[in-house]
Amino acid sequence: MDFLKTDGHLLSLPGASKAFHESWGWVVYWVGGKQFACEFMAKPEAERPYAGRHLLSLKCDPDRILELRAEYPGSVFPGYYSDGRAWISIDLDADVPGDLLLRLCKCSHQLVCAKLPKKQQREIAGA
Q: What is the pLDDT of residues 7-18, one digit of tens each?
């Protein structure tokens, strides 16, 4: 899937914004001051299986993580530099269907929004 479509989808979610994190070299997507996605190229010297891959990291339901990793063993990994029990990293150049990727982006946004204060959730929903 063309990442521009994924980027547009991420930014279309209520209250979403993005910024380039210079010290990491990553594009980070935010909602309510909290990260819900990040896109980056893992360095070639990074640990396996991340090394050299174009990755999108997303917050994910822990039960769903196990299903996704079993269904896409060469494409979905524990979150890179994050809690692998609550985050996944998806190889954007692999076989994860585009519609699934977009649903996972929306789910990540929803999971992060659900942890925000109720007032902030209402403000984002009204945006």
A: 999 999 999 999
- Tokens 């991340």 identify what position? 50
23-56 pLDDT, tens per residue?
A: 888 999 999 999 999 999 999 999 999 999 999 9
The answer to whether 56 and 10 are in contact (CB under 8 A) is: no
Domain count, the chain: 1
Task: Report the alpha-carbon distance of residue 127 to residue 117 in Å, rounded.
Answer: 16
Residue 42, domain extent: 3-126
Give the domain CATH number at 106.
3.90.1150.30
